[in-house]
Amino acid sequence: MSNRITQLFNIQYPIIQGGMVWCSGWRLASAVSNNGGLGLLGAGSMRPEVLREHIQKMKVATAKPWGVNVPLLYPNIEELMDIITSEGVKIVFTSAGNPAKWTGFLKEKGITVVHVIANTKFAAKCADAGVDAIVAEGFEAGGHNGKEETTTLALIPHIRKVCDLPLIAAGGIGSGNAMAAAFALGADGVQIGSLFAASEESSAHEAFKNLVVKAGEGDTLLALKKIGAVRLLKNSFFDEVVSAENAGASPDELKTLLGKGRAKKGMFEGELSEGELEIGQVASMIDSIKPVKDIMHVLLSEYVLALDRLSSVSYRFNNL
Amino acid sequence: MSNRITQLFNIQYPIIQGGMVWCSGWRLASAVSNNGGLGLLGAGSMRPEVLREHIQKMKVATAKPWGVNVPLLYPNIEELMDIITSEGVKIVFTSAGNPAKWTGFLKEKGITVVHVIANTKFAAKCADAGVDAIVAEGFEAGGHNGKEETTTLALIPHIRKVCDLPLIAAGGIGSGNAMAAAFALGADGVQIGSLFAASEESSAHEAFKNLVVKAGEGDTLLALKKIGAVRLLKNSFFDEVVSAENAGASPDELKTLLGKGRAKKGMFEGELSEGELEIGQVASMIDSIKPVKDIMHVLLSEYVLALDRLSSVSYRFNNL
User: Fold this and answer.
1) B contact residues 273-292, partner A, Cβ 8 Å cutoff
2) Inter-axis angle of helices A292-310 and A26-34, to 10 degrees?
3) Which chain B residue is nearest to residue A14, measuring alpha carbons?
4) Which domains, from first to last, does chain A contain?
5) Average pLDDT value for chain A
6) What confidence score (pLDDT) does residue B67 get?
7) What is the pLDDT of chain B when averaged over all its residues?
8) CB of B297 within 8 Å of any CB in chain A?
9) Burial code of A111-148, b = ≥16 C-beta within 10 A, e = fewer?
10) Dihedral sign computed on CA atoms, order A308, A1, B156, B282
11) Can you tell me the distance from the alpha carbon of B96 to that of A225, in angstroms, rounded to the nearest whole number?
């Protein structure tokens, strides 16, 4: 299996592990890279010195390609970028911001740059900024989410239509069937978050992973749209937010209710009722906490079956 | 191309035209059936005598299989069912209700019954009720929408996992790429609404179709969640609803704001600012009003290309 994404990153399978706050430290990222995908450290939840520590551990834990995800809203982003370049990181995924800001700086250092988007307007900005590839993420994804609410099924063909860059589909990729679907839609690779957030190697708290395993359909919804939509697993905090929203809470009131550090509290410290629990819709399909190796094996096996099914005579015709 | 869905309905391609209020009368449904798909009359917006008229016109307009979609919330549904059975309709799609209510009655008359669902709980109810197939519809679909907000990409693999019935994917199917993706996800067919709502043969008002052509990303969103979520194209009425919702409007206040007959006003009479304009996210991909024949041709051509791409060496490997 060799395409633009495997070639760009020099990896075996076009499967990227999304860089996620509180889940994707060196243990998870190195496990994904060692199993043929591309592991990403999620710098969004790391202080600069913590990121440096994880980068140094990654170098020991894997000889395969890997990268770092940097949300461009990070307050002291210059410090992160200094560490990334001085430590010789080769692949950077940027998200939640304008790709024009950092792409040139990173490309000059010889770094492969990928930017995460949720609409075609940003696809054009990515092309102008000179990124090497884009991740297009749909509404079903966990965590922070685009305001258009475009789903992966609707988003990917649209991005493909207006943009020739190597394209990675994200949001709702919870099975090999969905991976095959992403390629049918026009993607060259997939970025997977939730399955890996609930993996053995994820740094998320065990209690959070167990709650993800229990989650059913409709148990994640977008909340806090007035101050930046985020997909959360329902809990007491989520219910408080919805009550406030239904009563017409203002953006300032919602910011006060949210406060600081809730994602850490929920996902990393396991405070399930009052924490912010970011996970995607595919949580409803996750039925156990598995090692990355098993997750990859199931994904790839299902993917091969899905392609075999599509190449059978039932799905083909030649009389157009 | 022959699979469980083409065989069930005795059609050439596993493409169903969704039965839509104010769009899918005999002109649209017969055009779809005459071009190898399955056309459905949308009874939801027809008084009983109007449905009878459309059924009788269908019999003249096509010799191919076709059906009727009946929303189970229809107030005098017994009258509709009487007409459907006395006129000898052979295929009925039911939606928005419990499949246990009418499936037995219709099956006894030898009618093929399909039920529309948005979650796995109803897939089990469909199996118990003895339907012949199910339509699973995701969040990106236009009009009325499930409260779980599960997208088609997340929904179809989950339904497939728990249910063996012939499965039709709906919501977000706006291209041949998406059609191929639906099959990759595990569906046996696709139901398409928006593309046909904006077709030449649709009975929707020309002004509404032109607005759909102009729609961009994020121009449709779910509204009225407190009284039953519906995906609408943004307009003055939509803005009024959002303002009311943001200010904490109660369900009763929203019902009063909605009033009666807004979908007819917007979609059928072309009152674009104050009408209710139901359309799916794929509206952003629709760039002209085309005849059904051309829509089918583009869909099938793109579908063949998508399958060819997936069968290329770039997407295959055998070393698992």
Assistant:
1) 280-282, 284-285
2) 40
3) B315
4) 4-203 (3.20.20.70), 206-282 (no CATH)
5) 96
6) 98
7) 96
8) yes
9) bbbbbbbbbbebbebbeebebbbbbbbbbbbbbbbbeb
10) negative
11) 28
pLDDT at residue A313 greater than cutoff 90: no
Q: Which of B217, B253, B254 to mutate to test the interface with A (most CBs of A within 10 A)?
A: B217
Q: Which two tokens stand for residue B96?
A: 């928005």
Span B229-260, pLDDT tens digits: 999 999 999 999 999 999 999 999 999 999 99
Under DSSP, is residue B288 helix (H, G, I), strand (E, B) or coil?
coil
Structure confidence by residue, pLDDT tens digits, A87-114:
999 999 999 899 999 999 999 999 999 9
Quick one: pLDDT at residue B1?
83
CA dihedral A169, A171, A172, A176 (to 10 degrees): 30
Classify residue B156 as exposed, middle or buried by CB count within 10 Å of its CB (0-12, 13-18, 19+): buried
Q: What percent of chain B has pLDDT over 70?
A: 99
Q: Which residues of A touch B218 (CB under 8 A)?
A: 119, 146-150
Spatial CA neighbour of A96 closest among A78, A119, A73, A121: A73
CB atoms within 10 A of CB B29: 33
The per-residue pLDDT for range B31-87, each reduced to its tens digit, is 999 999 999 999 999 999 999 999 999 999 999 999 999 999 999 999 999 999 999
Determine how many CB atoms are found less than 10 A away from the CB of residue A304: 17
- CB spacing of B139 vs A154 below 8 angstroms: no
Residue type, A211: L
* pLDDT at residue B314, rounded to an integer: 80
pLDDT (average), residues B199-213: 98
Interface probe, candidates B4, B121, B151, chain A, greatest A C-beta count within 10 A: B151
Residue B305: other Cβ atoms inside 10 A: 13
Does this complex have an ipTM over 0.85?
yes
Residue A207: exposure state from Cβ atoms within 10 A (0-12, 13-18, ≥19): middle
Helix axes of A77-86 and A48-61: crossing angle, nearest 10 degrees: 30
Question: Does residue A320 surpass a pLDDT of 60?
Answer: no
Chain A residue numbers with beta carbons less than 8 Å from the beta carbon of B148 are 217-218
* Placement of tokens 């696809």 in the chain: A123
Cα separation, B15 vs A26, whole angstroms: 46
Residue whose tokens read 């209020």? B21
Q: What is the pLDDT of residues B142-193, one digit of tens each?
A: 999 999 999 999 999 999 999 999 999 999 999 999 999 999 999 999 999 9
Find residues 127-156 of chain A whose CB sits inside 8 Å of chain B.
138-140, 146-154, 156
Among partner residues A154, A180, A284, which is closest to B140 by beta-carbon distance? A154
User: Which chain A residue has its CA at the smallest distance from B234's CA?
Assistant: A148
